[in-house]
Amino acid sequence: MPLRTLSTRIAVPAGFFALVSAGALSFVLIRTQRENALEEAVLGSERIGETLLLAIEHEMRINARDAVREIVESVGRQEGVQRIRLFNKDGRISFSSDSAEVGEWVDPKAEACVSCHTGETPSMPSDAAPLTRTFQDPDGHTILGTMRVIPNARGCQGAHCHAGIAAQSVLGVLDVTVSLEPAEARLEAASWNALLLSLLAVAAITGTLYAIIARAIRRPLDTVVAATRRVVAGGSGVPIPRGSAPEIGILARAFNEMVESLNSSKSRLEEWASSLEDKVAEKADELRDARFQIVQAEKLSSVGLVAAGIAHELNSPLMAIITYSHLVRRHLPPADPAQEDLQLIEGEANRCAAIIRQLLDYARKQRQDAPTEPCPVGRAIHGALDLLKVELRNGGVEVTTHIPDGLPVVQANPVQLMQVFVNLFMNALHAMPKGGALDIAADVVRRTDVGELNLPPHESTHLVRTVVRDEGTGIPAEALSRVFDPFFTTKPVGKGSGLGLSVSLGIVRGCRGTILATSDGDHGATFTVLLPVSGSATDGHDG
Ligand code: ADP
Question: What is the pTM for the complete model shown?
Answer without folding.
Answer: 0.45
